[in-house]
Amino acid sequence: MMRETAEGFRLKDEGTIVHLFHKWVVTRPRRTALLEKRDQQWKPISWRQFGDRVAEIAFGLKALGIGKGDRVAIFSENRVEWTFCDMAILAVGAVTVPIYATSAAEQVRYILAHSGSRVVFVNTAEGAAKVAQVRQELPDLEKVVTISAGAAQGESDLTLADLCRLGRESKRGEFADLFAGLTVDDLSSIMYTSGTTGPPKGCMLTHGNIIYICQSVSQILPLKKNDLVLSFLPLAHAMERNGGQFISIYFGLPTAYATSLETVPEDLRAVRPTFSRAVPRFFEKAYNRVQLTVAGYSPRRRAVFAWALEAGKQYQKYKQAGRSIPPGLVLKRALANLLVYRKIKKMMGGRLRFFVSGGAPLSREIIEFFTALGILVAEGYGLTETTVLASINRMDDYRFGTVGRPIPGAEIKIAPDGEILIRHPGVMLGYYRDEQATREVLDEEGWFYSGDIGFFDEVGYLVISDRKKDLIITAGGKNVTPQNLENALKTHPLISQVAVYGDRRPYLVALITLDEEALLDQAPRYGITLNPNEPYSKNKDIIRVLSNFIEEQNSYFSRAERIKKFAVLDSDFSQELGEITPTQKVKRAAIYQRYRDLLEALYRDEGPQTPH
Questions:
Q1: Is domain 471-601 classified as CATH 3.20.20.140?
Q2: Over the stretch 344-398, which tens digit does the pLDDT of each residue have?
Q3: CA dist 325 → 334, 337, 387, 451, 585 (Å)
């Protein structure tokens, strides 16, 4: 087995994340901890205000009888109250159970029932209604607490304001007394996977898992005391909560919560963060927006953009190779920054130093594009089971097409079949109430079997090729990685999502969805005539444009990896229909089942065929 080991890491005794949170409340009471948008303005929340609200909720939970080991769920979209409730739950020694705000009622029922949650915080009227719909099937659930005053309070037991009032009235002792006995060995969270291959499993993460990730990150990411974070991924996702919220608290950094996913571009310009986190879909959409903008430039401006982009790529090649950068190239890049880079970075606030990308592989072309423009996209790798992180590219040590080197304290090795195995202090205790599933992924030596396929390149950077279960083996016995093909196709501005199919089949086919906003805006430029009475799947112009693009992309792949036929769908993949996860990852089994007849038709000489 190939193996990489990060030596010399020692876990410092800093207590739990709650202890560190309280440290900032005491030592930085007036400094900004959070930013939220209210009445069209970004309002700061100090560490003291943050601490006061968390204490009220914590004492309120204690008054309800919630204590060490009890499970408390949060079913809400991102908002400052999400973090208030989370820290309060941890402060009383209870266990946080995050639930995606977009979850269907049956998913909510499953997680609440499986975790045995005694209390659930909900925000919207829709969320309260979903819980009410399944509450009779939840014997362990004692209280439903509505966060927002506008939520359906008739379907809850009390509001967050009620709980805070209860906390103030029942307070006995100091806030620090609540977590005095809390240790890094205590369970902090049960985070349910998004379930791309079946029912979600609850990953049991300790306070020690969280602290390890924070301490490891502190050695490799150049975070500064004046950094500002914009948070917009769901806090129910391990990347945003473990690799975001807790990292910010560990470093004492202020965090601004985006109003919604739709307002992220506007929020970036308003908040002007210095770094943020995102999943590949964010970068794919941003890349396509820039491409469409540039396509509308005059020939002269397009030429300037292409020149500036090439200068940035050449600069990055020297930098990655560790070679001295020629003075002429330094001057060329400085001029490119004045003419091009600065304007694009201004669209993202103007202060961004880097993004961290994770959750799924990101196209190398897109990473190179943004990094050439002066915005480093540091792609990392990890899973919920590893408290979100195992390896990452550093600002001064990165390589495109890889997920970097192991983080301090982590060991990674490649099994004979290509599976990536991980061992570090952030690996979960196991799956909650599922010993068999735990034994399948955790061995006696503490190695976690990730289910991902990968390898170390010639200089020790980890490369992810695919999910083990997603690997396509064609009828000819060729192994094909579908995500490589899908990422290549998603670089087209009109394409939203792609699902490649072909396991045990003679050739590969693809299901393609369109970015409807881009299509409506750019149809004339591509020579596409849209008829409101004609579905996209039947539009010959759309099929022509995509067929030509797929033929072009096919030239970069071997014959076995090429898309021979494809179908255009009339609507995008839907989270509500279970086709994608909340972080926009394709759920292949669900898609293959839903479009089974269409896929079969592509193997009966039906559907557009790409030339070879």
A1: no
A2: 888 888 898 888 888 777 888 889 999 998 888 899 999 999 999 999 999 888 8
A3: 13, 16, 38, 40, 38
Q: What is the pLDDT of residue 475?
A: 72
The length of the chain, given as a count of residues: 612
Q: Which residue has the tokens 């179908």?
A: 567
pLDDT of residue 312: 94
User: From the CA atom positions of the chain, what is the Rg in Å?
Assistant: 25
Eight-state DSSP code of residue 508: E
Choose which CATH entry (3.40.50.150, 3.40.50.12780, 3.40.50.720, 3.30.590.20) describes domain 280-350+353-468.
3.40.50.12780
User: From CA 82, how far away is CA 422, in angstroms rounded?
Assistant: 31
Q: Which two tokens stand for residue 577?
A: 């229909």
CA dist 502 and 489 (Å) reads 16
Using alpha carbons, list the distances in angstroms from residue 207 to 43, 90, 92, 93, 112. Answer: 30, 9, 13, 10, 21
* Half-sphere exposure at residue 222, Cβ-oriented, CA atoms within 13 angstroms: 11
Residue 412 near residue 462 (C-beta atoms within 8 A): yes
pLDDT tens, position by position, 250-276: 999 999 999 887 888 899 999 999 988
3-state secondary structure of 116: coil
With a cut of 50, list the residues of the chain below it in pLDDT: 1-5, 196, 612
Whole-number Cα distances in Å, 182 to 15, 50, 73, 428: 8, 20, 20, 18
